[in-house]
Amino acid sequence: MISCVRAGFGLQSLLLVVATISIFAGPSRHAMAERVFALITKNVGDPNFIEAWRGCNDAARIKGDRCVHLGGDNLGYFRAQNRAIEDAVGEGYSGVAISVTKSEFIAENGLPKLIETGVPVITFDSDLIAPFHHLRQAFIGVENHLIGRMLARELQNRLPFGGNVCLMSAGPYDPNLNERINGFRSEIRKTSDLGSQPPLNGSGGWFESPRCPWFNKDNLDLAMTQFRQSMLDDRLDAFITVGSWPLHDPQRYVQTFRNLPADARQNRPLILIGGTGAPTPEHVSILRDKMVDGLVAIDFYNLGNVVYHYLVSLTQDKVLGDLPIVQPHFIGEDAYSNKDDTQ
């Protein structure tokens, strides 16, 4: 039986931290000028980042503030994110949170210009790599290595004798996604080393397909093409994503899956998807219909809520340190035993 979580999504500890940070948010701001905080993400159309922005903005509105969502899109990627950072210079934001694409690029281009303005800058979801940690005041997010390890553990539980696996990521430069891949490979190799890991070549009986990892450039069309090609590859035993791209459009995912040849659906590889948001009714339906075998989910709405409160604390010179507080959860197809329960 696969371990799973239900409606509560295990957020009690997260909400406690939010409440703790909010103590530092100061008195009511109804009589004070609106402050504007910026979330600069990898892709403004990503449903998970939209949820993070909603969490930030809903928390901000309570205090008379506002959060805005800036960043790249499917075409611009890290250069578009850097432009968004440069555009934020001089805009008067009270604080900025960045989900990092390519650390070296933004650290050597837009980020120093933003820091020079004196605005508080943190990272969330995806951190700068270690040599550039001094350019941000804190990181708030998940233990990304753990997401990779969780995916690997479920893979080994399902297929203990190994096989051929294909990984999917956005690109080779995303710090958080690389951590998830390294966590996956470290778990398969049964090592505590969290550094860069080469592709699997027989460890634990597992081999990575030579065409993988697929890099989809955070583009849904490309991600779905790569997903379909993987489903048609009869050499694959498992297809694992370290981000939620195939489910960004659940209806399209279902249509793509159902349009596969009958033998490809029947003999498909194990499908595990990491880094989704909190489960939606569409996710539940896809799990129940056995179009996906498991998700590793994150509550991005509450992540955005915490980001707002932390940025407020920085405007008051209250520094709390890094808060990697959002715990991922594995959700299997048996997570919802009642067919009518989609909450």
From TrEMBL:
Signal peptide: none annotated. InterPro entries: Bact_Solute-Bind_Prot2 (IPR050555), Peripla_BP_I (IPR028082), SBP_2_dom (IPR025997). Residues 37-316 form the Periplasmic binding protein domain. This is Periplasmic binding protein domain-containing protein. The lineage of its organism: Bacteria, Pseudomonadati, Pseudomonadota, Alphaproteobacteria, Rhodospirillales. Belongs to the bacterial solute-binding protein 2 family. It is found in: Periplasm.
